[in-house]
Amino acid sequence: MADIKYSISDLVDDPSKSIKVVILAGQLDESNVDQFAPKMYEMIQAMAAKTSVIFDFQQLTYLNSKSIGYFADFYNQITAKGGKIIIAKAPSNIKDILNVVGMDQMISMTQTMQEAKLMA
Amino acid sequence: MNWKIATCALLAALPAFIWSAIFLKRRDKNFKTYFWVFAGGTLTVLPILAYQYLYLYIVGDNPDYDFVSSLKTVVTGNWWIVTLYAFVGITEEIIKFYIVKIVDQRNPEIIQTINDSLKLGILSALGFAFSENIIYFVRILDSFGTQGLIAPFIFRSIFTVCAHLIFSGIFAYYYGVSKFAKDFIDFKKWQGERVSILDYDLFRRKYVAIGLGLSMGLHAVFNTMLSIKMPNNINILLVIFQVIFMFLFLKSLLNSKTGNLTFILANKFKSSMKAEDEEVVLELVGMWFKQKKYKEVYEICQRLERRDPDNNVVKIFKSKAFDALEAERED
Fold this sequence. Notes:
Shape of chain B: elongated
Radius of gyration of chain B: 23 Å
Strand content of chain B: under 5%
Number of domains of chain A: 1
Oligomer: heterodimer
Largest sheet of chain A: 5 strands, mixed
Radius of gyration of chain A: 13 Å
Structural class of chain A: alpha/beta
Order of helices and strands of chain A: EEHEHEHEH
Number of helices of chain A: 4
CATH superfamily of chain A: STAS domain
Shape of chain A: globular
Helix content of chain B: over 70%
Number of strands of chain B: 0
């Protein structure tokens, strides 16, 4: 089973915005994505309306197809609640995949956390 | 040349010309090859004639060898006629099939799309029908004169020739599919189906068998319907319906995006994506295709094709998604 570590935190830099940051490290693949996804759905369901979510991909080394499918679904659910979804610091290979898949047209992608916070 | 044969050849050329104009484009890159396939098709009538004459020659000289009379004692009455015509139809399809197969084996670069294969089948059939029509017209002219030729000329030109090219078009379509077995199996694999190394060869054989089986079966039915007698000539009406139905079926195969997609036989361009990254995208494409997210699949394939232009599996996904979207729009 591949290793995936994630942490969820609230960003309190800007009190005018409600932002959650999800930091991912490791590989999201067939062996763990079905355990990871329900945690995200729980988070999305529990969060207030207009909350944006920043996914920090800096330490993510692999994302399988099923995970991309889940991210497309996270996008639908978060935007349905009036929030935004941003992917920050994605490695080039993951960015390449997301570009071909067309996720970059739905989800904003930034080079830094600072840009992501501004976009949220 | 005997004027009768020359006239009949001209008459037989007319439907061949019209039908080829309907199915083929003049500026087709393989136009010269098509001409030679047509010429080859005209010779396929020879084996049929050969076994007719061989039979007459052998049995004529040696009545003891008349195996047909022995067969007639087992297969009697109308069943004999049905068996005979079905046998002729099946033989004709096998011969036409081999024309396409031989041309493809000698020049594999000619069939790059399923429709290229279909066109070869049609040409082979038109060649065959052309020769067969000459023989029929000469025989009719000898027996019934010019007046007797009009109705058979119209019927054979429209329905018999059309039926021939449809039978062959059908086997050739499936032959084309079988040629690209690897890509179609990979298309299944990316949708999560379990695939073994044996599946590639099985797929190839399966589609050749489907095509040949369908064309032989339809031809046998067609010949049988023409050979039997039914009240008020209902059999002729049924034949006409059969031809119309098969024509629409073939047209739909020709018009489908999958039928038109060009397969790359050799990889000229390397993908600009890493193989493992492309696999992730293909897995997603397969997953979404299964979930009927055709619009997304089509769009991803468009982008992926720019990165990996020679990937046939991407082409199949794209064309299948396009066909599915078209079908949804029509509904």
